[in-house]
Design goal:
23% helix; alpha+beta; single chain; 4 strands
């Protein structure tokens, strides 16, 4: 049973790959067709106004939708920064199969 649990979550390399992809979202418009939430048609879970005037948009991501990613978006709808909100072990992007 432990083997199944170990396989269910991603490796360090897969989590690093996820972080690199998310880092490349910064500066894009949250509405761009190639922005991660739009391109992969992620389900938006929540949004909230932040004290600095920006908005945090939270999406279900990852292969099993258990990863929650928050994007901080400015008034111009550009992504200012991102963070894993919940489910860090499920925030992975698997490399293409050979």
């Amino acid at each position: 049973m432990a083997l199944v649990a170990a396989c269910a979550s991603g490796t360090s390399a897969e989590r690093d790959n996820f972080k690199r992809v998310m880092d490349r979202q910064v500066g894009k418009s949250i509405d761009d067709s190639d922005a991660y939430p739009v391109y992969y048609r992620l389900k938006q879970l929540n949004s909230k106004q932040l004290p600095n005037g920006n908005t945090q948009l939270i999406y279900a991501a990852g292969w099993n939708q258990k990863c929650q990613v928050g994007y901080e978006v400015g008034a111009d709808r550009r992504i200012v920064k991102w963070a894993i909100v919940d489910g860090a072990d499920d925030c992975v992007i698997f490399p293409p199969r050979q």
